[in-house]
Amino acid sequence: MDDEQALIRRLRAGDSNAFEVAIKLHHGFLVAMATPLVGQELADDVAQETWLKAFAAIGKFEGRAQLRTWLARIALNEAYAIMRKGRREVSLEAWGTDPGSPISERFTEQGAWNTPPTQWHHDTPEALLTEAELHECIRKHMHKLPGDQQSVVMMRELGGLDYPEIAKVLGLAEGNIRVLLHRGRQRMRAMLNHFEEVGTC
């Protein structure tokens, strides 16, 4: 934390070496955060725009949150702005609501599997092709998650943010973050189970 505070002081002072250090530390994280929302082609644009805005506003950053948490909020706003421009508006209509588990019917009342997931192997070129199709299917289904679940899954699974960081970025209680992550993971698991069973998205 002391190192981060020193880095922030150097950034505020306009130290170009500090800018390079910050970019090396967090650029990959920002790209990973943006990719599920805007695609690989535009994710780097989101990261670049995030850096421009962050460096322009670094004097206002008080350091109460971690630097990457602050950057994540900027990147999320940039990604959503690009999505809106592409007429892929994120619907906030159901923000924070709990639609229930999408895979509850796969379990007994005691919590055991009714239908266990099948084993999945990658031994052949065909299986590798299937894996590439799966990656595209994951991206497609990530876009279908409700906006709040999508953000939480993305920040936790791809960005590696912890629960308090995500709560600060999204302005939600930590308990809500855990519920949203659980629901988002269940929806993605339901998609994976379907893919494993039928081989298509």
From TrEMBL:
Residues 23-88 form the RNA polymerase sigma-70 region domain. GO terms for molecular function: DNA binding; sigma factor activity. CDD domains: Sigma70_r4. Keywords: Sigma factor, Transcription, Transcription regulation. InterPro entries: RNA_pol_sigma-70-like, RNA_pol_sigma-70_dom, RNA_pol_sigma70_r2, RNA_pol_sigma70_r4_t2, RNA_pol_sigma_r2, RNA_pol_sigma_r3/r4-like, WH-like_DNA-bd_sf. This is RNA polymerase sigma-E factor. The gene is rpoE. GO terms for biological process: DNA-templated transcription initiation. PANTHER family: ECF RNA POLYMERASE SIGMA-E FACTOR, RNA POLYMERASE ECF-TYPE SIGMA FACTO. The keyword Hydrolase does not apply. It comes from the Bacteria. Residues 136-188 form the RNA polymerase sigma factor 70 region 4 type domain. Belongs to the sigma-70 factor family. ECF subfamily.
